[in-house]
Amino acid sequence: MASDFEGRLDSRLRSRREEAIRRLVECEARGEPPPPDVFPSPRYELIGLNKVYEGRDQVASWLAERKSVFPDQHTELIELHHAEDAVVAEFWYSGTHLGSLGDIEPSGRAFRCRMAAIFLFDEDVLTCARIYFDLGTIARQLA
Length: 143
Hints:
Layout lengths: L3 H5 L2 H20 L12 E4 L4 E4 L1 H14 L4 E9 L3 E11 L13 E13 L2 E8 L2 H8 L1
Parallel strand pairs: 1-6
Antiparallel strand pairs: 1-2, 3-4, 4-5, 5-6
């Protein structure tokens, strides 16, 4: 059910923000940083890991590493909720642990974890992806 605010938000702005998120998810699935027209100055805040990746180089390195660890990674958007300067996304993230993760050797096991992200915008320009997840949920499935 849309909030009263969601009903007042300009439909063109909603569409542009949703398209940016969908393009971002597609790039991430390939292990590639999003193009500048989607995320000009990328900043990812991974709340479950207490880490921040900022700038094209850091983000590109992190996404490539994630793709090498979980080559079949997949993000399934469940729901998008619009706010004045953000879109909250609920999604399933899944993959199979086929690459080394630091000192942790590949387990060959798959995981699926429900997550949420707050995508912050300045009008239709994505400025930050703040991702919330429970690391324990993933770790238990990979052990």
